[in-house]
From TrEMBL:
Factor XIII is activated by thrombin and calcium ion to a transglutaminase that catalyzes the formation of gamma-glutamyl-epsilon-lysine cross-links between fibrin chains, thus stabilizing the fibrin clot. Also cross-link alpha-2-plasmin inhibitor, or fibronectin, to the alpha chains of fibrin. This is Coagulation factor XIII A chain. Residues 1-26 are annotated as: Disordered. It comes from Tychaedon coryphoeus (Karoo scrub-robin). It is an enzyme of class 2 (transferase). It catalyses: L-glutaminyl-[protein] + L-lysyl-[protein] = [protein]-L-lysyl-N(6)-5-L-glutamyl-[protein] + NH4(+). The lineage of its organism: Eukaryota, Metazoa, Chordata, Craniata, Vertebrata. The active site is at C321, H380, D403. Belongs to the transglutaminase superfamily. Transglutaminase family.
Length: 735
């Protein structure tokens, strides 16, 4: 493809004084490539058929053939060749006669986009040589038979990720003969965590199987006292998902030449996963009304969302943090970047990045909702992506935080990351991107400040341990939870933790010193709060316990405020107010029970069935205030899933989903969803209503395609009840 091929194109281009060719954002657009590229005038007698001519190209692209097997791409439901960069793959070319190396010359050309250029990595000519150099483009003949040659082709370890068009070019004395455009030879090139020279190389095979090849994951939610989990179908190998993920990079207008760099890809993807400021994939909604869309809790996986976006090009409604993180994880694994979904319990959403969340109390000790702007999310999900960071000093590669949930703007767009986990742990928050924000999410302190009538602020309590006290992900090779808090922070109160904090402050994280506030807490009385296991629709009790460690008698005026909250810690309504006076005898403990009735909360409940209790107690003898807050999740009933008989690949199978309504009311507008990655595309069914205590049964017949261990995931959604899930591991046998 010499410069002459695109002159016709160039003449038609709008004149632009800034660049010779327009920006190259689209992997899908193509240029026209001439089948005969003449060097000059062609003599009359010239007949292309006299020369070596390509009759057929064979790509070995079936799932069971060598390329997809060796490149770990056999799971993709995609008929084209999919390989990973920096690793050799094979193709066979059939000519019209035997190939004679002494006189014949041919080469391969890989092209991407509408304006292929060699210096941008979008036009790649590959001459046939004798040796393949690791990590560099090249080709060599490994077998010749009759009219066929078999080539081993090596791609560069820094090559662009995406879909290339392949041409074979043959040299004749009068010009270059090329094969016709044939989409069957299109080749997808992906990141390669198996290749030591790739920026995303990961050395542990079990980790690669989990973080790249596993198409189902677990989302941990609930709260730190009551961790709950549900399955999520990533479905990165399902039909059209790879094309949908490549389209996201077009949508984000990432220049083709930048698409070999995982740092750039993560940064633009964290913006395009949410719909703020760029009409990205998912519209977030945290207000409990989901008209004209799907409630975030109803999704069972990423596939429906990505395919809907790919076809409509409009944001899909609606998502919350685990939906953004689930779809982001699919995107990363699909392109070959190792990725995992993280949950941070008690996550700080700090509006002014000063490492403190302020909860203001009035002079009686009740929380003042007017003044309190900060919130503690019960949990927040983000992703980690694995890569080297050549843009940072040595030691900050490995896991990087990326977050697609729109919270704060970064460089003018709603995006976050990649931020090195190692840099966050050590307080080196000066290293790009967005490390101070993530540092605050896991390290802030909660200040309870009483505002007196004259406006004076008195800090009554500082809670240094609540925020980011548990950070988790799914274990490698199983469904259990792994605590990775130590990867983000040193042990609370250790010397290393203090040093990391001082480093973060030195690098510009704002932390107010305690000198400018008066703070003398009541140290000889401790207050604790426990809740009985709470089941949706039932009464339960909470217990407030005081431990008086002094020799004095005290009385404590105690307030309990029960609030229905979004999982982001933002209050929807207060449903319980209770105050009492507690007598605290010297050197003893005393407990007080408060009953929470289902009639008090059922009418107001939000979809995650989560409560937030504030307890404040004023010690009347000293005027000091004790304060604490706790989140409580109700236990929501699950869906039961069972299968009938044996499941055999290619034979009809039957699955039954059951649910019994536990509420003292009829459920209206009930929607069930069922999916099984690699086995069953999402099926939806609407049920009008389920009366109280009655059971719904739904039978689905389907044909499982591939043998192996698979997972069925179901969800139920209705006006009064959401976040109802069920799952079942199934073994599909060989026919």
């Amino acid at each position: 493809m010499s410069e002459t091929t695109s002159t016709n194109e160039e003449n038609k281009l709008p004149l632009n004084g800034r660049r010779a060719i327009p920006p190259n954002y689209s992997n899908d657009e193509e240029n026209e490539v001439p089948e005969m590229e003449a060097f000059g005038l062609i003599p009359r007698g010239f007949n292309p058929r006299d020369y070596l001519r390509v009759v057929d190209i064979y790509m070995f692209k079936e799932p069971q053939e060598i390329n997809k097997q060796e490149h770990h791409t056999d799971k993709y439901y995609n008929p084209k060749l999919i390989v990973r960069r920096g690793q050799a793959f094979q193709i066979q070319i059939d000519f019209n006669r035997p190939y004679k190396p002494e006189t014949d010359q041919f080469w391969l050309e890989f092209l991407m986009g509408r304006y292929p250029q060699q210096n941008k990595g979008t036009y790649i000519p590959i001459l046939v040589g004798n040796v393949l150099k690791p990590g560099q483009w090249g080709a060599k003949i490994i077998h010749r038979e009759n009219n066929s040659v078999r080539l081993s082709v090596m791609s560069s370890t820094s090559c662009i990720i995406g879909k290339f068009r392949l041409y074979v070019a043959v040299l004749t004395p009068y010009g270059i003969l090329r094969t016709r455009r044939n989409s069957a030879t299109d080749t997808y090139i992906l990141f390669n965590p198996w290749c030591q020279l790739d920026a995303v190389y990961m050395d542990d095979e079990k980790e690669r199987e989990e973080y790249v090849l596993n198409d189902v994951g677990i989302v941990f939610h609930g709260n730190v006292e009551d961790v709950k989990s549900r399955s999520w179908s990533y479905g990165q190998f399902e039909e059209n998902i790879l094309d949908a993920c490549l389209f996201l990079m077009d949508k984000a207008e990432l220049e083709l030449s930048g698409r070999g760099n995982p740092i750039k890809i993560c940064r633009v993807a964290s913006a395009v996963i949410n719909s703020r400021d760029d009409n990205g994939v998912i519209a977030g909604s945290w207000n409990n009304s989901y008209d004209y869309g799907v409630a975030p809790s109803a999704w069972t996986g990423s596939v429906d969302i990505l395919l809907e976006y790919y076809s409509s090009k409009q944001p899909v409604r609606y998502g919350q943090c685990w939906v953004f993180a689930g779809v982001f994880n699919t995107f990363l694994r699909c392109l070959g970047i190792p990725a995992r979904l993280i949950t941070n319990y008690s996550s700080a959403h700090d509006n002014n990045a000063n490492l403190r969340l302020d909860f203001f109390l009035d002079d009686e000790g009740k929380v003042d909702t007017r003044l309190t702007k900060d919130s503690v999310w019960n949990y927040h999900c983000w992703n980690e992506a694995w890569m080297t960071r050549p843009d940072l000093p040595v030691g900050f590669g490995g896991w990087q935080v990326v977050d697609g949930t729109p919270q704060e703007t970064s460089d003018g767009m709603y995006r976050c990351g990649p931020a090195s986990v190692q840099a966050i742990k050590h307080g080196h928050v000066c290293f790009q991107f967005d490390a101070p924000f993530v540092y605050a999410e896991v390290n802030s302190d909660i200040f309870y400040t009483r505002v007196e009538k004259n406006g004076t602020q008195v800090v009554e309590k500082i809670d240094t341990t609540r925020i980011g006290q548990l950070i988790v992900t799914k274990e490698v090779g199983g469904d259990r939870m792994v605590d990775i808090t130590e990867e983000y922070k040193f042990r609370e109160g250790s010397d290393e933790e203090r040093l990391a904090l001082e480093t973060a402050v030195m690098y510009g994280v704002k932390k107010q010193s305690m000198q400018d506030t008066t703070y003398q807490p009541q140290t000889d009385v401790e207050m604790d709060f426990q809740a009985q296991k709470a089941v949706l629709g039932n009464d339960f009790k909470v217990t407030i316990t005081f431990r008086n460690k002094s020799r004095n008698s005290y009385t404590a005026t105690t307030y309990l405020s029960g609030n229905i909250v979004f999982y982001t810690g933002v209050t929807k309504s207060e449903f319980k107010k209770h105050s009492f006076s507690a007598k605290l005898e010297p050197s003893s403990s005393s407990s007080f029970d408060v009953v929470i009735k289902s009639s008090e909360y059922m009418g107001e409940l939000l979809e995650q069935a989560s409560f937030h209790f504030f307890v404040t107690a004023r010690i009347n003898e000293t005027g000091k205030i004790l304060a604490l807050q706790r989140a409580i999740m109700l236990d929501i009933p699950t869906l039961r899933i069972k299968t009938k008989g044996d499941l055999v690949a290619g034979k009809e199978a039957s699955v039954i989903v059951e649910f019994t309504n536990p509420l003292k009311q009829t459920l209206e507008n009930v929607m069930l969803r069922l999916e099984g990655p690699g086995m069953l595309r999402t099926i939806k069914k609407q049920f009008g209503r389920i009366p109280m205590n009655s059971t719904l049964t739904w039978e689905v017949k389907f044909f499982p395609m591939r043998p192996g261990l698979r997972k069925l995931i179901a969800s139920l959604n209705s006006d009064a009840l959401r976040h109802v899930y069920g799952e079942l591991n199934v073994q599909i046998q060989k026919p």
